[in-house]
């Protein structure tokens, strides 16, 4: 059994915890997110015949009060970057987070999840925005925490990328590296 | 053929070589190849023998393929060796296994003895009573309460965590320790360490190394690649830090490659588990060597109680046996059933009404009557003793009568009134078990006594008179009549007929003929007064005695009033 650490990242209230809550094994209260800013959960799955356990660090959403704790990113093999389709601001935060993570860990695999797809009609995010993300080379998936749509796909896609990707760089140990 | 080159020598070496080359080039080339191969066979083997160790080491550093390729062959070879030469394998592993087995057995025995000691100690002390109350109050098992109170410290879990990722490398937990998902705990522990370090701006080498929650402490040792976290209940000794550090150092030394190449597959570090298990130490409060006075007192009380109980049981059993023997020996008591039910006894039997009272015997025995249920049914004992007793009870003989048994015969002797003799004969027939009642001796003796009494009796007359009219005469007559009644009754009871001669006498006054006549009249007068018909078993004869008896003759000159009388002479037939 191979284990990989991944992070759930995104702006505050984009639905990260709701996305994973129904799909992971958890034994810790969500209260930890508001206290120390993270809850560790676990998701087991099989990708292309390989058994994999994702240790999911569900980080508190970044907002004006709390910034991303970079130390929590250390050692992550990949991450799910969650956006709220209803809030365009979540896209900006996601862009910033992605830059931070790349800066911290290097170009590790990630999947961008645009959440709340069940309310697609109310989205502030436009197709143009999504196209821009695609142009950046981001793997973008639609998801709905309410219906569960896209969640398994997101884990599977990220897992497949993890099993094929080279090892995460150790830039966390050398934050000023290239 | 060997001379051929010489034959063409004059044409020059170069030509010859050229010619040979033209003719035999392909074959020569092939020959050289073969020769080279033959020579290189030895060369390659020698080279390989030199290069093989380095080659294996080199390949092993790159990937696991060499291991994967060799594993099945090594396994098969090992299996074959075990089957074919088991002794060799036994000899090889015995030095390793025997100490391990001895250690395991020693640990198990020590654990068992310690557990037993603790159980005994805690089951007898006042403190254990408090703990039992606490167990009742809190609903926790007693063993757990004892553990919590006597535990100095116990390492419940040990985590080996990859520093970089927070992923769990290995984990060990003690028996009966509730363990949450160790992967998640490992992750959260890493998160908390990161949080603390971030939040308080500590330097990279200043890390969180101790957590304390209630009576749980988490000690964390930081290594270059991995951290070792021990979850400890109680207060561990400081030197346990050193043990943890040593363990972590050893893990880094022994598993350097696996740690460096760790990509999420913790199975590559399975070998560290024994080292983690070595960290699962525990220490309990030192056991008191001396047995507490309370324990001694309790033991002494128990021993005394047991001794007292044993003695009581023995004594009661002894009394019971003695009581049974007494009942068995007692005439008129027959035991028919004896049962013992725990401390309660039941007995049943037959009892002659004249036998000793079992209740009195029970009191004499010293047994507790409350422990004994007795049921007695009445019966008549037929042995001589009881026949005699019963006869004495029923017949109520006067003191002048002696009763005795001869076999089944009841013999009555002595003297008794005729009425008693008559009544006894009737009652004797009703006595159970009595086959014969013999009162012949009694009857005869009684008859003799009465007849002797009658022989002493007389009726005195006034001078010259033969009538019976004075009160004195009537009194004498009445007494004589009573004696005659007795004699008549006794004669009838003895089946005989008596003859009583009534002798009339006179004093010396008067002539002989006159006196003869008077004496006859006096005898007849007494006979008449007696009413002889009322005594059917007696035949009376009245006679006048003319001559005084010999003694009187000597004093014939005196006039004696007692010579004027009638007296009675009884003739009893001899017994058959």
Describe this structure in words.
The complex is a heterodimer of chains A (178) and B (576). Chain A is α/β, with parallel strands linked by helices. Chain A has one domain (2-164): Rossmann fold. Chain A contains 6 helices and 6 strands. In chain A, helix 4 links the parallel strand 4 and strand 5 (110-115). Mean pLDDT of chain A is 83; it is low at 168-178. Chain B is α+β, with helices and mostly antiparallel strands and 576 residues long. Chain B has 4 domains: 84-122; 130-284, Beta-Lactamase; 297-378, GMP Synthetase, Chain A, domain 3, CATH 3.30.300; 439-571, 60s Ribosomal Protein L30, Chain: A (2-Layer Sandwich), CATH 3.30.1330.60. In chain B, 54% of the residues lie in helices and 18% in strands. Chain B contains 18 helices and 16 strands. Chain B has helices at residues 4-7, 13-62, 65-84, 86-124, 126-138, 142-150, 182-199, 239-254, 256-260, 273-278, 293-329, 358-365, 384-395, 418-428, 440-456, 471-494, 512-530, 550-554, and strands spanning 151-162, 168-173, 210-213, 216-222, 226-234, 282-284, 333-341, 344-351, 372-378, 401-406, 409-414, 436-438, 458-460, 498-504, 538-544, 565-571. In chain B, the strands form 4 sheets. In chain B, strands 1, 2, 3, 4, 5 and 6 form a 6-stranded antiparallel beta sheet that branches. A 4-stranded mixed beta sheet of chain B has the order 13-16-14-15. A 3-stranded mixed beta sheet of chain B has the order 7-8-9, covered by helices on one side. In chain B, strand 4 and strand 5 form a beta hairpin. The longest helix of chain B is centred in the N-terminal third of the chain and has 50 residues, at 13-62. The N and C termini of chain B lie far apart (177 Å). Residues 1-10 of chain B have low confidence and may be disordered. Classes of the chains: A alpha/beta (178), B alpha+beta (576). The interface between A and B is medium-sized, with 31 and 24 residues.
């Amino acid at each position: 059994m191979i284990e990989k650490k991944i992070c759930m990242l995104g702006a505050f209230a984009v639905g990260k915890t709701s996305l994973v809550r129904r799909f992971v094994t958890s034994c810790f209260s969500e209260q930890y997110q508001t206290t120390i800013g993270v809850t560790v959960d676990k998701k087991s799955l099989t990708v292309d015949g390989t058994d994999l356990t994702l240790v999911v660090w569900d980080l508190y959403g970044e907002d004006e009060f709390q910034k991303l704790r970079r130390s929590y990113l250390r050692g992550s093999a990949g991450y799910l970057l969650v956006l709220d389709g209803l809030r365009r601001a979540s896209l900006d935060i996601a862009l910033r987070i992605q830059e931070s993570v790349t800066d911290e860990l290097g170009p590790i695999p990630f999947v961008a999840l645009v959440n709340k797809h069940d309310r697609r009609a109310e989205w502030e995010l436009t197709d143009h925005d999504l196209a821009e993300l695609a142009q950046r080379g981001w793997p973008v998936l639609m998801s709905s925490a309410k219906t569960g749509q896209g969640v398994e796909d997101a884990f599977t896609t990220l897992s497949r990328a993890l099993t094929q990707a080279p090892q995460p760089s150790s830039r966390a140990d050398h934050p000023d590296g290239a | 053929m060997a001379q051929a080159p010489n034959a063409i020598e004059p044409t020059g070496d170069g030509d010859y070589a050229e010619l040979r080359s033209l003719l035999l080039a392909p074959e020569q080339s092939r020959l050289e190849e073969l020769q080279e191969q033959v020579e290189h066979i030895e060369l390659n083997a020698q080279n390989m023998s030199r290069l093989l160790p380095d080659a294996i080491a080199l390949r092993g550093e790159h990937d696991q393929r060499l291991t994967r390729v060799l594993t099945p062959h090594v396994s098969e070879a090992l299996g074959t060796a075990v089957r074919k030469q088991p002794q060799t394998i036994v000899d090889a592993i015995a030095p390793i296994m025997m100490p391990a087995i001895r250690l395991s057995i020693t640990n198990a025995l020590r654990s068992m003895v310690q557990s037993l000691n603790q159980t005994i100690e805690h089951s007898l002390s006042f403190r254990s009573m408090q703990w039992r109350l606490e167990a009742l109050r809190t609903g926790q098992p007693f063993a757990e309460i004892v553990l919590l109170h006597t535990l100095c410290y116990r390492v419940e879990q040990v985590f080996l965590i990859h520093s970089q990722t927070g992923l769990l490398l290995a984990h060990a937990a003690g028996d009966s320790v509730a363990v949450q998902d160790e992967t998640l705990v490992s992750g959260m522990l890493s998160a908390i360490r990161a949080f603390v370090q971030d939040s308080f701006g500590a330097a990279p080498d200043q890390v969180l190394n101790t957590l304390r929650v209630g009576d749980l402490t988490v000690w964390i040792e930081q290594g270059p690649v991995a951290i070792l976290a021990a979850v400890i209940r109680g207060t561990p000794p400081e030197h346990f830090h050193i043990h943890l550090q040593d363990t972590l150092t050893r893990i880094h030394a022994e598993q350097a490659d696996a740690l460096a190449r760790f990509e999420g597959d913790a199975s590559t570090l399975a070998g560290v588990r024994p080292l983690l298990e070595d960290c699962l130490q525990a220490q309990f409060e030192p056991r008191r060597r001396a047995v507490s006075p309370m324990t001694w007192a309790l033991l002494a009380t128990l021993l005394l109680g047991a001794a007292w109980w044993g003695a009581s049981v023995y004594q009661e059993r002894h009394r019971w046996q003695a009581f049974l023997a007494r009942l068995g020996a007692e005439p008129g008591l027959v035991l028919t059933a004896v049962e013992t039910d725990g401390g309660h006894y039941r007995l049943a039997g037959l009892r002659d009404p004249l036998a000793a009272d079992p209740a009195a015997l029970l009191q004499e025995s010293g047994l507790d009557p409350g422990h004994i249920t007795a049921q007695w049914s009445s019966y008549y004992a037929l042995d001589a003793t009881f026949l005699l007793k019963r006869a004495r009870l029923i017949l109520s003989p006067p003191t002048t009568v002696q009763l005795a048994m001869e076999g089944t015969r009841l013999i009555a002797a002595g003297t008794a009134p005729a009425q008693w003799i008559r009544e006894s004969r009737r009652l004797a027939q009703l006595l159970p078990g009595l086959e014969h009642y013999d009162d012949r001796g009694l009857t005869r003796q009684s008859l003799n006594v009465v007849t002797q009494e009658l022989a002493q009796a007389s009726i005195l007359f006034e001078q010259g008179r033969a009538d019976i009219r004075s009160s004195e005469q009537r009194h004498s007559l009445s007494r004589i009549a009573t004696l005659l009644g007795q004699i008549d009754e006794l004669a009838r009871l003895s089946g005989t007929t008596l003859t009583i001669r009534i002798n009339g006498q006179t004093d010396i006054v008067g002539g002989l003929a006159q006196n003869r006549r008077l004496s006859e009249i006096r005898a007849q007068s007494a006979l008449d007064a007696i009413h002889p018909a009322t005594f059917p078993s007696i035949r009376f004869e009245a006679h006048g005695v003319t001559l005084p008896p010999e003694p009187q003759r000597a004093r014939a000159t005196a006039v004696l009033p007692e010579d004027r009388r009638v007296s009675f002479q009884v003739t009893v037939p001899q017994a058959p």
